[in-house]
Design a protein that fits this description.
heterodimer; A: about 80 residues; B: about 270 residues; alpha/beta
Chain lengths: ~80, ~270
């Protein structure tokens, strides 16, 4: 588990335009810069809202990250259904 | 001059970014009172505003997360959020007052961190948009970690406010103190959109007509369960309660605005 690294990746993509651009160009290579488990890397690359949330990514990192990927409010809520 | 104004206000991006999603009557009532609080602040003719505020990963990350950070910059840019529908602006700071407050804290046994460069996200910028139109009055931000645990306790926030209040009361400048955050909300969580009205009302009742020292009894767990991850921001209100412990308080508005996903409160204090 490396929740810190996973959140760091998301923080960089959310907050740093240069890193966001590198991530957009080649997400697979970008993700390799962080010390992630296979599951974490997969969840990040698939923008798997439910998996990232369950792994403990902070909601105010996760929601902006998913907004960058055009995840609607409805789809976001649907992904978290049952986790209340 | 002592503290000349004190007020507390919730912030939520929806207040400006999707104002019209809220029922019109509710939005008008709340935002009208937000402006009214701004008029009360302006009428106090402050030289500076000390803003007890929070942030949402705008400046700090888990590599360094101060419990209390006092801004010492000559200006602060914001809002971070492009989509907030508030024009970008440069908010003037009062670096001299910041430095004096930081020195007083360290001399008196409080050890805040300090920063010469802070961005304001909606947490600080949105309240200032309503309370400090045109960003005319310079600001000293005091950022409290209400974002990620472990956070300073309610007791410590109250004590910090008390301490800060004493320092500001003795300062020659006319100083307005504002607190921003809360009330109950679960931003980005599975419970997003939930508002715990009974929690909010109990909190406001204690603040306005109860024994304010009781506010120090809120535990992290209680806030987390009852008021959500966003509810931790009530620590800024608790700090303000410490700063103006003996002042009267008046509820200007409380509106649980579901489309803004926040229990929205506005309180004005007076001597």
């Amino acid at each position: 588990m490396s929740l810190y690294q996973l959140q760091k990746l998301i923080y960089h993509v959310n907050r740093d335009p240069a890193q966001r651009e590198r991530y957009r160009q080649d997400p697979v290579s970008f993700v390799k810069n962080y010390d992630l488990s296979d599951d974490e890397a997969k969840a990040a690359l698939n923008v798997d809202v439910r998996a990232l949330y369950t792994m403990g990514v902070h909601s105010l990192l996760l929601r902006p990250f998913t907004l960058l990927h055009k995840v609607s409010n409805e789809d976001y809520a649907k992904a978290l259904k049952g986790l209340e | 001059m002592p503290i000349v104004f004190a007020g507390a206000a919730s912030h939520a991006p929806g207040m400006t970014a999707w104002t019209e999603a809220a029922p019109k009557e509710q939005a008008d009532k709340f935002l009208g009172n937000y402006r009214r609080l701004g008029e009360m602040l302006a009428a106090s003719k402050p030289d500076a505003i000390v803003a007890l505020s929070v942030e949402h990963w705008a400046n700090f990350f888990l590599n360094q997360m101060p419990s209390f950070c006092i801004g010492r910059a000559r200006h602060y840019d914001g809002p971070v959020e492009e989509w907030l529908r508030i024009p970008k602006a440069r908010v003037p700071g009062d670096a001299k007052l910041s430095a004096e407050v930081i020195d007083a804290c360290l001399d008196g046994g409080f050890d805040p961190s300090f920063s010469d460069e802070l961005l304001f996200d909606h947490a600080t910028f949105l309240p200032l948009h309503f309370l400090n139109p045109g960003m005319a009055v310079p600001v000293v931000p005091v950022i409290i970690n209400t974002l990620t645990p472990p956070m300073p306790t309610a007791m410590r926030c109250f004590a910090m406010g008390q301490f800060l209040g004493n320092v500001l009361e003795q300062h020659p400048k006319r100083i307005a103190v504002i607190a921003t955050g809360g009330l109950s909300h679960w931003p980005g969580e599975a419970k997003h959109g939930k508002i715990n009205i009974p929690f909010d009302k109990r909190f406001l009742d204690t603040l306005i007509s109860g024994d304010r020292t009781k506010l120090t009894e809120y535990s992290h767990e209680e806030i987390n369960v009852e008021a959500g991850s966003g509810g931790h921001e009530i620590r800024t209100w608790i700090a303000l309660a410490g700063a103006v412990q003996n002042w009267k308080a008046e509820l200007l508005a409380y509106e649980p605005v579901v489309p803004w996903a926040t229990g929205c409160g506005l309180v004005a204090f007076s001597r």
